Each structure stands twice: as structure tokens, then as C-alpha cells.
Amino acid sequence: MAEGKAVPAGSVERAHLGRKRWRLGFLALAVFVPLVVLQVLQYRWLVDLEAQSAVAYRSRMTHYLESVAEKAEFFYREDALTSLGISPNMLEPAWFHKAPYFFKKNPAKGAQSRFLVSFLGETPGQLLFYVPERNTLEPAGEGEVPESLSVALAPWNVNALKVGVATDLDLVVDRWNPEYRLILKPISDEKERLVGVVGYVVDQQLLKQKILPQILEKVLPKLGEEKDTLLTFRDGGGDLKLAWGLGPEVPTADKEREIARSLTFVLDDWSLTLEGGDAKLRRLAERGFATNLTLSVLLSALILAGVALLLRTMAREMKLIEMKNDFVSNVSHELRTPLASIRVFGELLRLGRVDSKEKIRQYGEYIETESRRLTQLINNILDFSRIESGHRRYHFEPTDLMQVLAAALKTFEVRLEKEGFEVEVHEPEEPLPEVSADPGALGQAVCNLLDNAIKYSNGGRQIEVSLGTEKGQAVVAVKDYGVGISREEQKHIFDRFHRVGSSLVHDVKGSGLGLSIVQHVVEAHGGRVRVESSPGQGSTFSILLPLEGTR
User: Fold this and answer.
1) Exposed, middle or buried by CB within 10 Å (0-12, 13-18, 19+), for 435?
2) Most distant CA pair in the chain: distance in Å?
3) Half-sphere exposure of 467 toward its Cβ, with a 13 Å CA cutoff?
């Protein structure tokens, strides 16, 4: 039976992470595209709403103008029917003297004067004017009958001479002279014969100064609270007859925003125009449009921000998972290598295949060195766990930094010799004073720097270790001539699990915890870590500690 080909665990994990990234991208697209569509639809809806609001406003204003026209017609029609509704019996000679009392009892609200023409009696067709001061009907003097009135009455005088049934006996408006408008009411008897005409001259000054303003004030609540509205009454020639403004200053009319309505009855040659008036609506619409659009954009932005934050968090979690996977893989390698060496040398010693005392000593040093290496790795992992949980404790005591440095170098002595490294140690000209420090933790930090210098040497077999002072600080520096670190990478080298991404160090195994622990230890001592590095030029890591008041 053929054996199945083993698939590396790392490949499976990378494939799994790749699928997760693809899902994240799909999720981002699934959220972003509907939001864009929603924004477009929202914008179109707001534009349509604004247009519909304008149409609704024009419809409301048109209804308002119609109401004004209807009330104006109703006023004059009712006034004429009441003040001119004289009975045909009063035109009979026996009752004609009662006619003035009818006019007195039924005054005309919109008339300049009233007149009566009777086609019965001794003087048929005579024009009589009602004089309210004397309550009499009196004929006009020679040449006092206005031409407009004569022209208006002429057809009725002709009709009175005809024999037959009178027709079209409704109220009649005569505006042969627009400045002398007349309302005429034919009078017929029970046999529907034309027996007279009664009418009045429209008082146009009263119309402009009182009647129309009163009508506008009654209908005004329908217009709302617009402050830039102008109502104008114009005659057939376009001449302005009356302007009614609701604001201190009315803008020039915009024909596209102008709403007009023809009047009826007495003023059927006039037009009523509303100019402006939609400013408040436009302001409200614009404000509502802006508010809705802003809220929509903000809501979408919040959703996008939430999704972006979620994606970022998930991406960071995936990155952390990837780094932890690398950490487990690298730590496993770091554990296997020294354990394999210890096992080999232990077996050789157990089987008695080593006769030379020098070889036994050498193998013992190898076992001790690899054990120290294991101890350092395990200590790093344990310290990282304590740091993460906040349980890392330091025991400060007077410490000689040179002794700490010497102990760290002693730990790496066999490894450095085995791998062919030359180590230069630069001591200060005068011994440094002791500092308050945890020698074990500080020694571990120096060991981590030495371990990195060995790992990332890239063939350069020289390391410089120095102890000195700088501006009142003790400086422990470890310099290598290896691959170096780019400026961009230097921002992240102290992050947990982070490993330099250069292809030159791809095969270098490590836990990714060393520099993170170094930084934590040094900062706990009141110091800082400085890195100076350039790609291909090597790196210098310096631990700076205050000489006085350490911590």
C-alpha cells in the first residue's frame, strides 16, 4: 500500500489563514457595496422628495390664489344680489316712490354709486341715481352721465323696446372702461318682460384699499409664515394695480417660481400673482436634505468604521494567530536542536565510546552549553508569560554591571567558540559604580542580545560588547556585523512574536520574544533600549541605565 504524502503543518495553517483573509475581503465588499447603493438610493430619494415638496407647495399656493379669487367674486356677487335685488313691482308708477327705501335698506358695500333705469311709467328709459344723503332717486344733470354708463345701458334700452321674453337676466359686468366698472342687473316682471335695469359703479379705490386687503387677511393663514412673499394684482395690460408684501423686502420675481391665477367676475381681466413665497420651504427642504444626507453619511461612516474596526481586529487576530503558529514552530525547533545534541553526547558517554578525558570534558561542556541554551529559552517563555499576566517581579540589589556582562559572555563561551565568533570586550577605563538592579533579569536581557547577534550574523563572525557611560547613564552595548535592520522594521522589532521579514533571515529560527523581554526588563529598571542599524551594516543594541536612582 502506498504511503500518503505528508503535508507540512505550516502549509495547512497558511492555506487556512488565506481562506480567512479571502472571507474578510468578501465581507468588506459585501458591506461596502450595499452601503454605496443605499447612499445612491437615499440621495435620489431626497432629490425626489425635494422636487415633490416643491410641487406640493405650488399646488397649495395655487389653491390659496383660487381661494382669493373665489372670495373676491363671492363678495361682489353677493353684494350686487343684495343691494340690487329690487322688486319689479317697485317699478310700477304706483310703487315707484318706494324704490329709494329699498336702496336705503340694502346698502352696497363695494359701490361708488347706484343707479336705476325703469322702462315703465311716463319717462321710460330715464337714468336715475340714488342719492343716499337725501334718500332719493334723481336724474343726472346735463352732460353728467359718464360715457361708460351710456354705452353699457344702450343695449338694454334697445332690448326694452323689443316685444318678447327677456333673456340672460343674470348679473352682468361691464368693463368697457376698466376704470369705470359696472355691475348691472336686469329686472323682469312675472311675464319675464324686461322692465328695468339696476346697477352700481364699482368703487375701485375701496377695492384696492379695503376690500382686497380684507380678503387677503382672511385667507392669509393658508399661506403660512412665509416672509418673502409678494402678491400682486395686475390688469390685462400688465400694469400693477395692487401689491401685497408679507416681508420687509421682496426679491425680484423669478418667473420659474411665479404662480399666477386669473380673477373672475368684476375683475376678470385682472390676474393675481404670487412671487417668491417658497423660500421657507426651500430652506426647510435644503436643511432637511442636508440633515438627512449628513445623517445618512454619518450612519454609513459609522457602519463602515465599525466594519473596518472589526476587519482590523480580525486581521490583527489572524496576524497574532500566524505569529503564534510561527512561535510554536520556532520554539519547537529551538527545543529540538539542543535536545538532539544533549542526547547524542549523552549516548556516547553512556556507551563508553569516549576514552579521552579531554573529549569527556568537551562533551560535558557541549551538554552544559546546550542546557544553558534550553534554560534561556524556557526562561524567556516563562518571563513572557509573567509579563503578559502582570506577575513579573524584580528583586533589586546593588549590582556590578561588568559582572553581569561577564556572566552572560560565559554562558555563550562554548557556543561562540564552536561557531567561530571573535568577541571584543571593551571595558570602561574606570570601574562603574554599582547600580540597583535585578542581576538575573539584566543578565537575561544581555543574553538575548548576544543570542540575536549570533543568529543574525549572516556570516560575519565578529561581535563587540562594551560597557561605558553616556550623559550620566551606564551603557551596555552589543554590536554585530550581520544583516542589519531597516528603519521601517525598527518600529516593530520590540513587538511580541515579531521577526524581521528579510529574506536573509528567513531560515533563522527564534521565538520572537527576546527583544520584547529586553525592552520590558530595561524599562522596569528605569532605562531604555536604543537600536542603531542599517541593512547589510549590522546592528548595535544599547541598554541605557541611570547610574543614580536606578528604577
Assistant:
1) buried
2) 172
3) 19
Q: What's the pLDDT score for residue 131?
A: 94
Please list the alpha-helical segments (H only) found in 412-550. Answer: 413-418, 439-455, 487-490, 514-524
Pairing of strands 194-202, 111-118: antiparallel
Which residue bears the cell 541605565? 545
Handedness of CA 418, 424, 429, 433 (dihedral sign): negative
Helix residue ranges per DSSP H, 390-420? 401-411, 413-418
* Span 218-234, pLDDT tens digits: 776 655 555 567 777 88
- Whole-model pTM: value is 0.46
Secondary structure of residue 161 in the 3-state scheme: helix
Return the axis-axis angle of helices 212-223 and 9-83, rounded to nearest 10°. Answer: 160
CB atoms within 10 A of CB 324: 13
Look at the block and give the residue holding cell 411665479.
258
Given a contact cutoff of 8 angstroms between Cβ atoms, the answer to whether 105 and 95 are in contact is no
How many angstroms from the chain centroid is the CA of residue 138? 79
* Grid cell for residue 63: 389653491
Among candidate residues 197, 230, 214, 29, the one with its CA nearest the CA of residue 120: 197
- What one-character DSSP code corresponds to residue 191? T
pLDDT tens, 439-497? 888 988 898 899 888 888 887 889 999 999 998 899 999 999 988 888 888 888 888 76
Please choose, from the candidates 161, 176, 99, the residue with its C-alpha nearest in 3D space to the C-alpha of residue 130.
99
Residue with cell 384696492: 208
Query: In which element (H, E) is residue 43 found?
Result: helix 9-83
Q: Is the Cα dihedral 363, 366, 372, 378 positive or negative?
A: negative
Contact 260, 271 (CB under 8 A): yes
| Residue stretches of the chain with pLDDT short of 50 | 1-9, 248-253, 503-506, 550-551
The pLDDT value given to residue 5: 46
